[in-house]
Amino acid sequence: MTNRNIVAVTYDSLRADHCGHFGYERNTTPHLDQMASEGTGFQNAVAPASRTNPSMAGTFTGEPMVARDRVADPSYSRRHLARYGTLAEELSELGYTTGAFNPNAYASRHYGFDRGFDHFEDFLFSTDRYQEIFQNHLSDSTLYTLIRNFRNYLRREEAFKTWDRYIDQIEEWVTTQSEPFFLWVFSLDTHFPHLTPRGYRTWSSLFQQYYYNWRCNQLIDEMDPDLTEKEIQKIINIYDDSIRFGDVLLYELQQRLAEYDPVFIVFGDHGESFAERDIYGHFYPSLYEENIHVPLVASEPVECDGDPSSPISLTQVPNIVQHFTEKKTRPQLNTWTIATDYDGRNDRNLIAVRTKNTKQIACWENGDLTSTETYALEDSIEETPLSEDSELHETLRPLIQRRHVHESEMLSIRSSVTELV
Fold first, then answer.
1. pLDDT by residue (tens digit) across 95-133?
2. Please, are residues 336 and 317 in contact by the beta-carbon 8 Å criterion?
3. Running DSSP on this structure, what letter comes out for residue 313?
4. Rounded Cα–Cα distance for residues 86 and 93 (Å)
5. Where are the alpha helices (DSSP H) in 95-225?
6. Whole-angstrom Cα Rg for the chain
7. 90-94 long-range CB contacts below 8 Å, 24 or more apart?
8. Looking at the predicted structure, is the pLDDT value of residue 11 above 70?
9. What is the bridge-based pairing of β-strands 40-46 and 263-268?
10. Cβ burial 79-105 (10 Å sphere, 16+ → b, else e)
11. How confident is the model over 271-299, as a mean pLDDT?
């Protein structure tokens, strides 16, 4: 088999249940839905973590990242990407030209995601002064965070950079490269703030877009946000409009790159919460379905080892991509998969095990196991947790324990190596 041109498109904060091919009542993703119908749409794809940095580190290496510090610390993802090697590095060894266009700061070269890319455009650090502002923002400086956000709003950079502002650069890069190529495009359009151009707004007005983005900004660090049902729906409206606009990116890429006949691999890096568990967004680590059940679509059929309706982790994305190379690897679908995340602010470690119809989530706080919740999934959503005496609870618990022991051993080894150095 020849090495195909491959385009990977990542959507930030895209929930599976807000996509049409999952039965969503709104026509948010017509182009993604068409890809799923013509190719392969995985129904139970699970992000390896609930936030961009650990999720993408796991996705690009095929191995979930283990960290015990705040997500802003770049050393963890840099070390993880270097240790396991990245998808871009593997494709480079196969003769691919590799390029990325990615305005997400937490998957930028600052965090090591440029490994293996011949061209990596993250639109960051245009000046030394801005790099200083960014570093101070990561240190939780409220003043520098405000300066950063105001600067980026005026310049439409980072979270304010919509795909239409850099798609010409993408097309120009592709037309000047040798084949085969691997292109990674990261869309922040579906991430807060939801800045949908006028012609693409269907469920919200300009006033509602700005007002409810302002409300969302107020909720980022709040637990148990004070939101009415009306407000939640209005926030969902601006979110859905941003998904509809983001979906047009796929159409544009397909049209502009048609002569290269690329295969598209499309997925969300994690989901988004709308106060289902008294939290908004994804800034507070959570492994419930709204935060980790994501779309994963290949524009052409994929031969799998296992039932395509089984749970599949985004850590299988490298195998899906390389299915279309001379390696022709097959993604592994098992009866269960794992997600893990760490809350550096509150010293909370979370591990979830997900089967096709069941789920268990365990939480450790300050090193102690504080809760274990087991669910029989109803329409892919956790409802009422089962009793700890239930058979299902006892069946899933060893899988959680095995992962916890594995993470503890990895951290112990890392600590010992650090002491030796």
1. 999 999 999 989 999 999 999 999 999 987 555 555 554
2. no
3. E
4. 11
5. 128-138, 142-155, 167-175, 206-219
6. 21
7. 90/116, 90/318, 90/322, 91/6, 91/116, 91/182, 91/321, 91/322, 91/325, 92/116, 92/118, 94/3, 94/325, 94/326, 94/327
8. yes
9. unpaired
10. ebbeeebbbbbbbbeeebbbbbbbbbb
11. 94
Question: What count of residues does the chain have?
Answer: 421
* Cα–Cα distance for residue pair 399/336, rounded to 1 Å: 9
Q: Helix H segments across 220-348?
A: 229-256, 289-292, 317-322
Structure tokens at 318: 């490298």
Percent composition of the chain: helix, strand, coil (DSSP 3-state, to 5): 45, 20, 40
What average pLDDT does the structure give for the chain?
89
- What are 51's two structure tokens? 């936030």
The one-letter amino acid at 166? Y
Report the pLDDT averaged over residues 85-102.
97
186 burial (CB, 10 Å; 0-12 / 13-18 / 19+) is: buried
The structure's pTM equals 0.92
Residue 210's SS3 state is helix
pLDDT at residue 306 in the model? 81
pLDDT digits (tens, 9 = 90+) for 24-68: 999 999 999 999 999 999 999 999 999 999 999 999 999 999 988
For residue 331, cis peptide bond before it (omega within 30 degrees of 0): no
Structure tokens at 134: 């960014």
Whether 372 contacts 366, CB under 8 Å: no
3-state SS class at 353:
strand
Q: What tens digit of pLDDT does each residue of 324-367 get?
A: 999 899 998 889 999 999 998 889 999 999 999 999 999 999 98
Q: Which amino acid is at 180?
A: P
